[in-house]
Amino acid sequence: MSQKVRHVLGISGGKDSAALAIYMKDNYPELDIEYYTADTGEELQETYDLVTRLEVYLGKPIIRLTHSKDTENHQLGPFELLYKSKFKYLPSTQSRWCTQYLKLRPFEMFIGNDPVVSYVGIRGDEEREGYISKKSNIQSIFPFRKNIWSEDVTTKVLANDNIKQLLGTIEAGEVTVDDEFREIIAEPLSLRFSAKKKLDLLLNADTKAFNQLVFSYLKTTRYPLSQVDSFPVVADTKVSVKEDIFALLRTSGVGIPKYYEELEFEVDGEKGTYSRSRSGCYFCFFQQKIEWVWLYEQHPELFEKAGKYEKEGYTWSERESLTELMKPERIEQIKREYIQKQKKRVEQSANSSPFLMDKFLDEDDQQGCAACFI
Ligand code: SF4
C-alpha cells in the first residue's frame, strides 16, 4: 500500500519562501501543505515578526524545527548550545556546520522516511538549483520557475533511452502535443543537442504538455509524485520574478521583511543607502561588510553579541575582527566604498530594471545558502 505523500514548504524568513507560501495558499488550497521554519535561535526579530504575520495569512501554524533544546537550564539557544557543547569554533564558508546541524538535519528528521514533495522558492529570474536533499524520499518542486522540476528529474526524463517511453505516452493519448513538440522529444541528445537545449525547447513549445509528460513518466519511478493521482502544479505556467515576489508580499498584507528596507547614510557629504540583503542569522558569515555596518548601527546589541563569539584567529567577517570593523574610520571607508559600488551598479543596470531595490539586491541574492536565505 502506498504511503501518504506529504507536502512541505520551508520558511527561511527571506522574501522568496514567504512569497511562495502565499502563492501556494492562494493557488493550490487543495494541497495540504505543512509549513516549517528551522530556527537557529539567532535570527533577527524582523524574521520572527515575518513568520508570525505569515501564520496569520496562512491560517495555520508554521512548525518550528530546532536541532536541540537546552533541557538543562533553558538559557542557550540552538546555535549557542551546539557551539558550546560540540564545535567550539565559528562556522564559516569552509565549515558550514550551522546549516548542516541547524537547518538541514532538523528538516530531514521532520520528514523522516515519508515520501515528501518540498516546494522551493527559487524564482524564475534566478539561475540556481537550491538545496536538493540527497534523500530519495524528498522531491523538490520549484513553482516560481518555468521548469518546476529538479535537475535530477529532467536529466532522467530526457535521457536518450527514455525517448521510446515518452513517445509511447504521447501515442497512447495520455498527453496531447503538436508535431513540433513530438519532433523535439524524438530528437536524441548529442554533442550539438544538449539536454539544456532540449529542455528549453520543450518548455517553450508547451510547458503544460511537458509537465504532464514528466508527471506521467514519474509514475514509472519511485519519486514521491509517483504516488499521487493528480498534481495541480503541472498546469502552472506562470513564471514569477522578483517584482512578482514583492507584489505578492505587499498585496497579501504580509509585507516585506523590514530588514530589506533601504536606509540612508551619509559620508563626506555623499549619500548612500544600506539594508540587509537576506534572512538568516544576524552574525551570518555570508554577509557583506556594509551589512555588518548596518548591524552595528541598526542593531548594536546584536553586533556586540556577535563580537563576543570571536576569538583569536576566529572572526565572522573575512580578514578582520568586528572590533576592527567598528572603528569609525573603518566604517567610513566601508560606506565610501559601498557608495561607489552602488553608483556603478545603478549605471550598469539602468536599463535592465525599473525597480531601485533590484539594483541593490541582485548581486547578493545569488550568494550563500539556499536553506537559509530563499
Ligand atoms: S544564516 Fe548563515 S550562520 Fe545562520 S545557519 Fe545559515 S549559513 Fe549558518
TrEMBL record:
Residues 7-129 form the Phosphoadenosine phosphosulphate reductase domain. It comes from the Bacteria. It comes from Hymenobacter saemangeumensis. InterPro entries: PAPS_reduct_dom (IPR002500), Rossmann-like_a/b/a_fold (IPR014729), Sulfate_adenylyltrnsfr_sub2 (IPR050128). Coiled coil: none annotated. SUPFAM superfamilies: Adenine nucleotide alpha hydrolases-like (SSF52402). Transmembrane segments: none annotated. This is Phosphoadenosine phosphosulphate reductase domain-containing protein.
